[in-house]
Amino acid sequence: MSWKGFTKGVVRAPQSVKQRFNVGEATKDAVYIDSERRFQELETETKRLHTESKKYFDAIKGMLNHQIEFSKAVAEIYKPISGRVSDPDSIVQEGNPEGIRACEEYENIVRDQLATLQPELEMIETRVIQPADELLEIIKIIRKTTAKRQHKQLDYDRHRVTLQKLKDKKEKSLKDEKAMYKAEADVEQATQEFDYFNDLLKDELPKLFRLEREFIRPLFQSFYYMQLNVFYTLHEKMQAINIGYFDLSLGIEEAFEAKRGLIKDQADALTITRFKTTGGRHKPVPKYGAKSKLAIENKGSGTPQLAIEGRASSDEPPSSRRNTHDFVASPPPPYSPGGLTTAGAGSASSAVGRANSTGRSWGAAAKAKGAAPPPPKPKPSRLSGAPAPPAAVPMATALYDYEAQAEGDLSFATGDVIEIVTKGATENEWWTGKVHGKEGQFPGNYVRVN
Does 319 have pLDDT greater than 90? Predict the structure, then answer.
């Protein structure tokens, strides 16, 4: 903005504020107000026409490009990770040659479609998008004219108010007479300029609206026929696809199920797919039930077995506290005073995980030491001169590692000393304790009370 334009803006500011808040007199032309409202709608819808046609052009082109990238991604998945030990098909030259060949054929078909539709896409750009751009440029020029008319109206109202104030004065000095003469000249000039722009817009805006309808009609018709050409071309090319890898005689769902086969069940059978949590809150369940989840089965036999999967009785519903993990695969062994040197120790050691590898040697060493000698009786309080010590807090030593499997569980390692907060009736129940500043529940047969 130039300095002259800035000074004019400052001079017009008071009148602009009055007009915005409907204070004082303001010139209003009903015909122009209606035309200006219609012009504003034309400006908004033209911008929308340009935006939506550009989005359609990009969508058709992007759809075909995404199809090409999709086939490339599927082909890469079919290929083995050659030379990697983790890939079971690394010794095979191609993991799925038929699938890779189908992906390449599909990619070639889509590329051919893109080349065929290129002239239609160019027509959308030249016959829809570019004309909308040209109409927007015309609207920008007309918008400048409407802004000019608004400025002239402010000047006209401002000079008219000034002249009226001078005329309303009862006693006029020589200075007032000169100011009134100047105000009359300003009002006359402002009236001429305002009438020129006001009459110009009132006369030519309706003509623009008529031309707009003539402009939009062929634009819309061209866009419609170009869409038909795009859809018919896509339909014809896709119907002509003859890739032997796909069985087009089946329905979509039937073909999907036939191709998938038992893959879903085989994937669900993998242990790693079940070691995940939902992130949601677990439903509260009673800590003590008819049958503890850590109950030891077959106590009478020589090979005790930890039934960590059976906390609830067999007739209870399947929902349990460990609904997000599977403990059946490799449960840690229970603590046994007799050790694990029975005839079944060999088979038990094969199913024992990290907990047994760290807990066996520690438990055996603790067993070999024997029971600790009893401590001497404390001195009477009258001799020690100190108050009687508080009751000892029950403590327990971890016999195995335990990782928290649900919210509220307490994790600990073999040999950790745990402060017992709540102790169950038996060791085959869930106890509550503290270790490392954290409090939570843990299986009672994983620890030994000190």
Answer: no
Alpha helices in 172-320 (DSSP H): 174-239, 252-260, 263-269
Q: What is the mean pLDDT of residues 380-402?
A: 70
Q: What is the DSSP letter of 127?
A: I
Cβ atoms of 403 and 411 closer than 8 Å: yes
Q: Is the pTM of this model over 0.85?
A: no
439 forms beta bridges with 434
Helix, strand, or coil (residue 366): helix
Whether the CA torsion 267, 273, 277, 282 is positive or negative: it is positive
- What is the arrangement of strands in the sheet containing 438-443, beginning at the earlier edge strand? 438-443, 430-435, 417-422, 395-398, 447-449
Q: Reply yes or no on whether the pLDDT at 433 is more than 90.
A: yes
Of the spans 147-161, 268-282, 368-382, which averages the highest pLDDT?
A: 147-161
Q: Categorise residue 438: left if φ over 0, alpha if ψ from -120 to 50, beta otherwise.
A: beta
DSSP 275: -
Using a 10 angstrom Cβ sphere, with 0-12 exposed, 13-18 middle and 19 or more buried, the burial of residue 321 is buried
- Predicted confidence at residue 391, as pLDDT, reads 64
CA distances from 391 to 25, 379, 394, 422 (A): 92, 15, 9, 15
Mean pLDDT of the chain: 74
For 205-252, write each residue's pLDDT tens digit: 999 888 888 887 788 888 888 888 888 888 888 888 778 777 777 788
d(CA 378, CA 391): 13
d(CA 213, CA 142): 17
Residues 6+ apart with CB under 8 A from 431: 420, 422, 423, 424, 441, 442, 443, 444, 447
Q: Cβ distance 139 to 64 under 8 Å? A: no
Q: Phi/psi of residue 163, each to 5°? A: -65, -40
| 356-392: burial string, b at 16+ Cβ within 10 Å, e else | bebbbeebeeeeeeeeeeeeeeeeeeeeeeeeeeeee
Q: What is the largest CA-CA distance in the chain?
A: 130
The mean pLDDT value for 93-112 works out to: 81
